[in-house]
Amino acid sequence: TMNEKYKSFGIYxxxxxxxxxxxxxxxxxxxxxxxxxxxxxxxxxxQYEIAAIISxxxxxxxxxxxxxxxxxxxxxxxxxxxxLSGEILRKTAMLTARRSFHHLVQFQQxxxxxxxxxxxxxxxxxxxxxxxxxxxxxxxxxxANPICFVLYAIASWVFFRERVxxxxxxxxxxxxxxxxxxxxxxxxxxxxxxxxxxx
Length: 199
Description:
Elements: H1 4-30, H2 46-65, H3 73-97, H4 127-142, H5 146-175, H6 177-185
Helix pairs in contact: 1-3, 3-4, 4-5, 5-6
């Protein structure tokens, strides 16, 4: 049918809406003191907004020229599975860390900021980033956007490598040897990202 080629955009948009709504919802559950309109993460960064727009441009350009590639239901299922898994991992991390979870890297240690190493934090040092990393790539699988799939993978990897380094420097300042030991036993969870190591 004519509308079949647009279905994947509907699935993608549902995941996008759910992601931003649940960011706000889970901050309200885990760390209500820090809740603001920014907790929706809609104004995360100009790069994030540009990336979204580029993915829409790619989708609608390819729908016009190659409508059949947008009808591959297998990609909808694979992409949705990746998005849902990433979403669940990220939200579980937020609930596990509770008051220690922040949308921005904290450079001053708050009294309630504890080093969380249990639950999903025993699998990865940065489960919320792992969840977001795969969620963002999953959105492009749903859309069957080959160009943005590659661009999102690269851009997300560069963003999180930088972010993990910055965050781990602050965590080493806050927790010292306790964090060094945690690093020794638990990976970041992000492919080919080691984190900041004290030499």
